[in-house]
Design brief:
Largest sheet of chain A: 6 strands, mixed
Radius of gyration of chain A: 25 Å
Largest interface: A-B, 90 and 89 residues
Helix content of chain A: 40-55%
Number of helices of chain A: 16
Number of strands of chain A: 17
Structural class of chain A: alpha/beta
Oligomer: homodimer
Strand order of the largest sheet of chain A: 2-1-3-8-7-6
């Protein structure tokens, strides 16, 4: 089975938007054993879009589009797609009802434009969208299949996982099964060096490493006649990876995150946590609050950005700030102990550092961060050093601190 | 002048690499007034690559490739490109010398493979690479131009800026200039309805709307002989947009954000701010801290996630929580006033809501959020309603609250 990815939108051609959907879909399709030989991007132009459909279907069985399902006149993906298959657009009552209740729920008036979003090609399979107004759909005819999805990744990704993956699995011969190992605390090139021999020798299963913000994943994919066979086939490779990376592997699965592992461990151990942040300024609290159910264990966060806040709220000593500065091992310690005491939690977390771009010195350069964890008054501090933008330094410091908590709870 | 971007590499089709070069090049080309109507990605396959060159040149004057200039057998971009133009590859002595000194500098041995990287199509213009081993080149013949650049962005970007931009500027007639207006507090479809007539009548300048997380931008682009003429040409359109959208337009420019406008206004007015967050859990504090220089005005943030934290830290009355609940207009008010008083700031901000997926009731459904702002003890509260995931609700609530602050400061 071969597929092509066709992203539609002038904003992509102007460079206003990054085509991250092509990467996401490619990775997912590779995991399903579907071959992808072309990505294409075209703008909101009916002539070029029609030609792009014809070109893509001349090469592939399946075309997956992203974007162009919005309410405006510019949004043409569905119209031209239906035309390509010789189908009319008809009002889909289910889609319309969903759309109407969506607008009621958000308390906004549904415009005439939005009704257009509920029009579907005759005979198409509806893909509901729980995170936006544009439903997707699948047209299949004469051995060709067109799968249309909206542009925003937060809408496209769950629609793909919930509806398109089962649809494609049913139609593929043999089974492709993936396991995703999630790592932290090890650099991308170090990790790739450590598995070079496995990558070079691989046929079935395959290993695909992928890195982002202080995190790394390995996707191991095997194909076989049944899911059980595929899983058995990849078992020795997975075991070898666990042997090589040990507790740098923090979990498995597509939707796992370090914050989720931390929150789940806290719930399991019935321990409470509070955080005091300086340079990360709420990122850590936000990462924990992002996880459903975190209210059971995360009681409070303080963004003690100023020295006064560190003294008044957390009981950091003026002397400590004077002798060692706010970005110091000593200050981080007092912040962690202080926040645990103030809120009355089992664990206190503190992060203080120089996020830049200004404020760095020779002694304390931009990117220097201290992260402290106090567990029932036993304090550990890590000195971290990063490079890059303010955003990158803050993000990395947050991830590394989450990893400290995870290891402390293991 | 029209150009296409052709990225070459199987790693892109497997989803292992994100095609960020297409975005970078598109943005740069838009700024130069070069129209881009297609992006394409093909793998390291000679047949498909040759066809991709033919297709791209059938549509565009210029094709810019990224990737496939490496030393291995898989790297074919230059070979197939030269073949397309009927040119032989010959050793370029300048390129070879640069390559040799590069290897001396990094203390590594140059392999026979690397010599291949110094082979250039006859008559091509060399583009030196100061950050890697693969030089780029430009072939121009019969009105068609092929610009070949290496894949890694840290190599491609400076090569494009230093060599390709001047090359294209010399050959383009006229100038394209864009202005980007940034809006908030108005929905995408409402906004598009409001400018339908302008979009339909547009030729030069053009208006391109684009929406993301509670924010909307209009990109207005005009072409003329000089920058001054282009700016003058778009002035009436820009003025009309300001007339129609008023203070929903919060600023202009590609790198502006609502958080930046808020921090800059606070600095300008010499006012301090503290925030108390429940459902957004640090997102608002983090958005402010993300802006360089925010430490001048942002003093402290409290993530008062539990009821105890709201009472103990902010002085919210137990009675208020009992009678109205934590997600209420009353609680938001007391939180905003409380945090301003506690920290001693001019402005206090509070956000409390039901982020979901659990915890919603008929009376207080998931997505209900109260945002309060206290400016020198005058309190305003907004009731907000959102749908979607926990992450989306939190993000939208944060943006809407930033907009409240902006309007309060105007």
């Amino acid at each position: 089975m071969t597929a092509e990815i066709l992203a539609v939108g002038t904003e992509l051609l102007l460079g206003d938007t990054l085509n991250s959907n092509a990467q996401y879909l490619s990775k997912e399709l590779a995991g399903l054993g579907v071959s992808v030989y072309h990505h294409t991007v075209v703008g909101d132009n009916p002539v070029r879009l029609k030609k792009a459909y014809a070109d893509a279907f001349s090469r592939a069985d399946i075309v997956i589009t992203s974007g162009g399902l919005g309410p405006t006149k510019d949004d043409l993906t569905k119209e031209i797609g239906a035309e390509y298959f010789g189908k009319k657009l008809v009002m889909d009552e289910d889609a319309l009802k969903t759309l109407e209740s969506f607008f009621t729920r958000i308390g906004r008036v549904m415009t005439e434009n939005n009704r257009k979003q509920a029009m579907m090609p005759e005979g198409a399979l509806l893909i509901p969208n729980n995170n936006g107004t544009a439903p997707g759909c699948i047209i299949s005819d004469g051995g060709k299949t067109l799968i249309m999805l909206p542009g925003p990744p937060r809408e496209l990704n769950p629609m793909f996982e919930e509806r398109v993956v089962p649809y494609l699995r049913e139609r593929s011969d043999g089974v492709y099964v993936s396991r995703i190992l999630r790592l932290c605390g090890v650099g991308e090139s170090t990790a790739e060096d450590m598995i070079k021999d496995l990558i070079e020798a691989q046929t079935n299963p395959t290993i695909a490493p992928y890195a982002k913000l202080n995190e790394l994943t390995f996707r191991i994919t095997a194909s076989a006649k049944t899911e059980g066979e595929a899983l058995a086939l990849m078992e020795p490779t997975v075991a070898e990876l666990y042997k090589r990376f040990g507790d740098n592997i923090y979990g498995e699965g597509n939707n796992l995150s370090l914050a989720r592992v931390v929150v789940e461990k806290l719930i399991e151990k019935n321990m409470t946590i509070a955080v005091a942040e300086s340079c990360t300024g709420g990122l850590m609290a936000s990462a924990l609050v992002d996880i459903e159910g975190s209210s059971k264990v995360f009681l409070e966060g303080l963004v003690t950005y100023s020295n006064e806040a560190k003294i008044n709220r957390l009981g950091v000593k003026g002397e400590t700030l004077k002798n060692h500065g706010a970005v110091s091992c000593e200050c981080a310690k007092e912040m962690a102990v202080g926040v645990a005491k103030l809120v009355g939690t089992d664990i206190g977390i503190a992060i203080t550092g120089v996020a830049g771009p200004d404020g760095g010195t020779d002694e304390k350069p931009v990117g220097l961060v201290y992260a402290a964890i106090s567990v029932k008054s036993n304090v550990t501090v890590n000195e971290l050093k990063y490079t890059g933008s303010r955003q990158r330094i803050r993000g990395r410091a947050c991830m590394a601190t989450l990893d400290m908590i995870r290891r402390a709870l293991s």
